[in-house]
Design goal:
By secondary structure, the protein is α+β, with helices and mostly antiparallel strands. The protein is 31% helix and 25% strand. It has helices spanning 47-52, 73-80, 84-93, 98-110, and strands spanning 14-19, 22-27, 33-39, 44-45, 59-62, 67-71. The strands form two sheets. Strands 4-1-6 form a three-stranded antiparallel β-sheet. A three-stranded antiparallel β-sheet has the order 3-2-5, with no helix packed on it. A hairpin with a 5-residue loop joins strand 2 (22-27) and strand 3 (33-39).
Length: 121
Amino acid sequence: YQRRVHGCEEGMWFYIILEGVVEVVGRNDRGKPIPVCEFGAGDCVGELEFIHNHVTVADVVAKTEVRAAKLNRPHFEMCMGPVKELLARSRESDPVFDYYNQTRRTATDESHIQSGFTFGK
């Protein structure tokens, strides 16, 4: 599967997975890849980078052929603006997002977030 966005770049897209499975891969303290979770049809990725205005905190790699809809930031704001706070709160308390929340807090303390976002075939 081909990388669409490389590490340490600003998240440019919000994806809604229509078909297929993606794996979220984070990094441990030594920079080695660690599996975080998987998402499938109906799930979305990339929204938290838009909500919190930072670069991506983990790689997202297609495990199967994936078909997804994508929105850029202005369209995300237009469509999701009214529910952004609700979405952020739901992600804060969902254990699936523990890696993200911990990494974001650590990175905020260190003034940077590393890793990247890869997606697609």
